[in-house]
């Protein structure tokens, strides 16, 4: 017996070590087996979501990236006036007119691009920055002699714009390949020839106002939707299912009609000889028709009508989960009905309110058709101008810059919102 | 029990119907004394919860009046009744911490901040949850949530605390533990408790008095032992504790006792509790533990023939299922005694009773 004991004691220190090594090996083997078993599963899962991923990449991620790029990428001028964009770098003292080689390069480029019929592209790009550039570029190009002693004096003789520093500032800013011109412009700033950033002249500074207007309209619409949607959602959540279902269909009805049709219907209803005005006059509430359309009121009415379901649905889904016993408990504990509502019911609807609010707000920000149809000139939102630059003037740089600023501003607002309410508290359905 | 002072709560001829057709509570008359633990016991749909809700103010009586401290509650909204309530599924506010939940009644009563914190903490200590004040209800177990609900209903020192099946969602062991805890809290605070349950053992464990509800009326209002020992009708006998029933006809009544002829012709002397008179039908009620098993050769007078159907070993006692006077399901509880072996299936024997353990009650529809 004693020898057995001694043996086992002596063997003990090594035994666990050998054991541990074997255990480690076994565990490693187990892990690799698990990985192998899981790999097939993961591949299958990835295969299932791959089409959607690809779709999102092509239709969402790539266009946004392209748009962001376009707002800073600027090759319109360098494509057709390569000599000019190279030569403008020789212009060092930007408080003086540039030296002769710059003029020579411009003249050569003008002649070439006129022959190639690409001069319009350069003229258009310069016109974004310098007013009247299109006219003096085209005019000068037509009247340029074959040779000249001094291109500088010749060009200034043809059009005095060539004697202004700002003209060359515009050329320098447009010479690419990257520019801050569009982005600065989108927030009513500009760069002078010497590189300082200053506010744009008053008649050009419109975008900050339009952005502000976009956010004000969106917030107002969100607020009205919350105020109108809350009681409706409450009713829906607390009515017997039979009636609630019918009401739900009424709430969803606008969803099933085209946005254009609904907006057009508002035009019919709200105009001065429209149903609403007629009814108000007929019932004696008004003596003469009020203007309900082509102004802010029309925009609010039409947008709230369209966006209301986006507020009601998340609210409804949250309210459905709030048991009536909470209100009973609050009253039994001594809270009058108003207090019980404010302290107990309302806080529990926050996830729905915040989800609905975010939905309505985000959708509102991008609204285009409705304000365009029922709003006046002072009610157009930023999307209108993005569309204008995209399709009317084909100034994609400016359209992209406005889009990028809108995206960033929305992200910042979302960040603030997230800090205040918390995205994790949100419930979309 | 019934003191000389006015009762704290008085239901006076209260009637309630929801749809104008079925009457959920019929002519309820009930006095609740200050400081007592009264349980409303009954099967679902018996009107006990409706009665509680009328007291809390969430339902209005269709007829009659409820008085609290002598004042009619007719025009007092629920939040002014000063009645604490514990709900079946706790109803803790999920968006508040435990502490905020408990402080809620104080907050709506505009108590000072320091008083709120102080009293909430004391209430939480009382239910042994001192350290969990900062948690959310969702992070607590069912038993802990129940304690929070209890603390919340007691923290503002209401005149009465109502509890609507508060332990229904807990498992058996925790439920039994909480029963004792609630009972101790009641004893130490002296608060009046009105408790609703369908679990008779819960009612027996905790209550000073139990009101047994069925069909919208109180079948019997008595102490736990009163209900068990001397049920006034077959419903109560059947609902409280275990019970064997034999049907028969009253032959004669002599003082408190009556002779009953069973359906198989055997005759037995029983205590006349709820019988109409000679010739009327009656149901006899026997408690399984009050039945004596005797051998055929040596049995008492008041005895019935029985055949053992099976014996079930229960550890501390043996349950014997017998056929007695045509009833196949006659249960007898027999404690282990060293000098007696449990009978085997098929054995013929006698069961005998003292007349006071055999109650003649209103007939049960077979």
Automatic annotation (TrEMBL), chain A:
Pfam families in UniProt: BPD_transp_1
Keyword Nucleotide-binding listed: no
Low complexity biased stretches: 9-19
Cellular component, GO, one term: plasma membrane
Keywords, alphabetical: Cell membrane, Membrane, Transmembrane, Transmembrane helix, Transport
Residues annotated as domain ABC transmembrane type-1: 211-417
Protein name as it appears in the record: Spermidine Putrescine ABC transporter permease component PotB
Classification of source organism: Bacteria, Pseudomonadati, Pseudomonadota, Alphaproteobacteria, Rhodospirillales
Automatic annotation (TrEMBL), chain B:
E.C. code: 7.6.2.11
Residues annotated as domain ABC transporter: 9-240
Annotated GO CC locations: ATP-binding cassette (ABC) transporter complex
First and last residue of the signal peptide: none
Xref: InterPro entries: AAA+_ATPase, ABC_SmlMolc_Importer, ABC_transporter-like_ATP-bd, ABC_transporter-like_CS, Mo/tungstate-bd_C_term_dom, P-loop_NTPase, PotA-like, Transp-assoc_OB_typ2
GO molecular function: ABC-type polyamine transporter activity; ATP binding; ATP hydrolysis activity
Catalytic reaction list: ATP + H2O + polyamine-[polyamine-binding protein]Side 1 = ADP + phosphate + polyamineSide 2 + [polyamine-binding protein]Side 1
Keyword terms: ATP-binding, Cell membrane, Membrane, Nucleotide-binding, Translocase, Transport
The keyword Cell membrane belongs to this UniProt entry's keyword annotation: yes
Gene3D superfamilies: 2.40.50.100, P-loop containing nucleotide triphosphate hydrolases
Domain of life per record: Bacteria
One Pfam family this sequence matches: TOBE_2
Family as reported in the entry's similarity comment: Belongs to the ABC transporter superfamily. Spermidine/putrescine importer (TC 3.A.1.11.1) family.
Subunit structure as annotated in this protein's UniProt entry: The complex is composed of two ATP-binding proteins (PotA), two transmembrane proteins (PotB and PotC) and a solute-binding protein (PotD).
Functional description taken from the UniProt entry: Part of the ABC transporter complex PotABCD involved in spermidine/putrescine import. Responsible for energy coupling to the transport system.
PANTHER family for this protein: SPERMIDINE/PUTRESCINE IMPORT ATP-BINDING PROTEIN POTA, SPERMIDINE_PUTRESCINE IMPORT ATP-BINDING PROTEIN POTA
Name of the protein: Spermidine/putrescine import ATP-binding protein PotA
Species whose genome carries this gene: Caenispirillum salinarum AK4
């Amino acid at each position: 017996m004693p020898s057995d004991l001694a043996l086992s004691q002596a063997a003990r220190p090594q035994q666990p070590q050998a054991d541990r090594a074997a255990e480690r090996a076994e565990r490693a083997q187990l892990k690799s087996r698990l990985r192998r078993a899981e790999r097939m599963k993961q591949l299958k899962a990835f295969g299932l979501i791959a089409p959607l991923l690809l779709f999102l990449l092509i239709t969402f991620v790539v266009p946004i990236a392209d748009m962001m790029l376009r707002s800073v990428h600027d090759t319109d001028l360098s494509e057709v006036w390569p000599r000019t964009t190279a030569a403008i770098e020789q212009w060092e003292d930007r408080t003086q007119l540039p030296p002769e080689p710059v003029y020579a390069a411009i003249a050569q480029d003008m002649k070439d691009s006129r022959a190639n019929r690409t001069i319009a592209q350069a003229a258009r790009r310069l016109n974004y920055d310098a007013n009247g550039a299109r006219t003096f570029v085209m005019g000068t190009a037509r009247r340029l002699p074959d040779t000249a002693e001094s291109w500088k004096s010749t060009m200034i003789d043809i059009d005095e714009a060539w004697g202004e520093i700002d003209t060359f500032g515009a050329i320098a800013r447009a010479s690419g390949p990257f520019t801050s011109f569009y982005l600065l412009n989108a927030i009513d700033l500009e760069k002078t020839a010497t590189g300082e950033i200053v506010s744009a002249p008053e008649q050009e500074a419109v975008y900050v106002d339009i952005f502000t207007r976009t956010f004000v309209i969106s917030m107002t619409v969100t607020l009205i939707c919350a105020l109108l949607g809350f009681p409706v959602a409450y009713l829906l959540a607390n009515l017997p299912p039979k009636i609630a279902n019918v009401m739900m269909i009424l709430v969803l009805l606008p969803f099933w009609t085209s946005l254009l049709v609904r907006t057009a219907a508002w035009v019919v209803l709200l105009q001065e000889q429209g149903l609403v005005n007629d009814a108000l006059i007929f019932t004696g509430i008004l003596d003469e028709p009020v203007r309900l359309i082509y102004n802010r009121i029309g925009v609010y009415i039409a947008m709230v009508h369209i966006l209301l379901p986006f507020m009601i649905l998340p609210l409804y889904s949250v309210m459905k989960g709030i048991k009536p016993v909470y209100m009973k408990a609050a009253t039994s504990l001594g809270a009058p009905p108003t207090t019980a509502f404010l302290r107990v019911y309302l806080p529990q609807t926050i996830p729905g309110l915040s989800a609905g609010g975010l939905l309505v707000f985000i959708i509102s920000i991008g609204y285009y058709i409705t304000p365009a149809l029922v709003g006046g000139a002072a009610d157009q939102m930023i999307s209108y101008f993005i569309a204008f630059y995209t399709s009317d003037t084909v100034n994609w740089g400016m359209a992209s810059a406005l889009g990028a600023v809108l995206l960033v501003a929305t992200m910042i607002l979302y960040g603030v919102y997230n800090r205040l309410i918390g995205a994790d508290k949100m419930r979309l359905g | 029990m019934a003191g000389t002072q006015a009762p704290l709560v008085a239901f006076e001829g209260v009637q309630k119907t929801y749809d104008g057709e079925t009457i959920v509570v019929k002519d309820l008359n009930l006095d609740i004394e200050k400081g007592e633990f009264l349980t409303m016991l009954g099967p679902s749909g018996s009107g006990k919860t409706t009665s509680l809700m009328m007291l809390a103010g969430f339902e209005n009586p269709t007829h009659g009046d409820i008085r609290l401290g002598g004042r009619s509650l007719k025009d007092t909204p629920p939040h002014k009744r000063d009645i604490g309530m514990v709900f079946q599924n706790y109803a803790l506010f999920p968006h508040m911490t435990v502490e905020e939940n408990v402080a809620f009644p104080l907050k709506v009563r505009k108590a000072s901040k320091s008083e709120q914190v102080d009293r909430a903490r004391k209430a939480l200590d009382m239910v042994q949850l001192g350290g969990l004040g900062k948690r959310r209800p969702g992070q607590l177990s069912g038993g802990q949530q129940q304690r929070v609900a209890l603390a919340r209903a007691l923290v503002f020192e209401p005149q009465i605390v109502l509890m609507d099946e508060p332990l229904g969602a807990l498992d058996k062991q925790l439920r039994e533990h909480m029963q004792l805890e609630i009972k101790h809290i009641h004893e130490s605070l002296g608060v009046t408790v009105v408790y609703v349950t369908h679990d008779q053992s819960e009612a027996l464990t905790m209550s000073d008095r139990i009101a047994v509800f069925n069909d919208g009326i109180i079948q019997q209002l008595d102490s736990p032992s009163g209900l068990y020992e001397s049920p006034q009708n077959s419903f109560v006998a059947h609902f409280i504790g275990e019970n064997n029933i034999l049907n028969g006809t009253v032959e004669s009544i002599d003082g408190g006792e009556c002779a009953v002829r069973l359906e198989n012709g055997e005759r037995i002397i029983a205590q006349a509790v709820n019988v109409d008179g000679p010739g009327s039908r009656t149901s006899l009620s026997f408690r399984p533990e009050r039945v004596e098993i005797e051998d055929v050769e040596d049995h008492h007078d008041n005895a019935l023939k029985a055949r053992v159907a099976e014996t079930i070993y229960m550890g501390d006692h043996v349950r014997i299922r017998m056929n007695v006077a045509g009833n196949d399901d006659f249960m007898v509880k027999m404690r282990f005694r060293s000098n007696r072996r449990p009978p085997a299936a098929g054995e013929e024997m006698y069961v005998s009773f003292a007349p006071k353990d055999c109650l003649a009650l209103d007939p049960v529809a077979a």
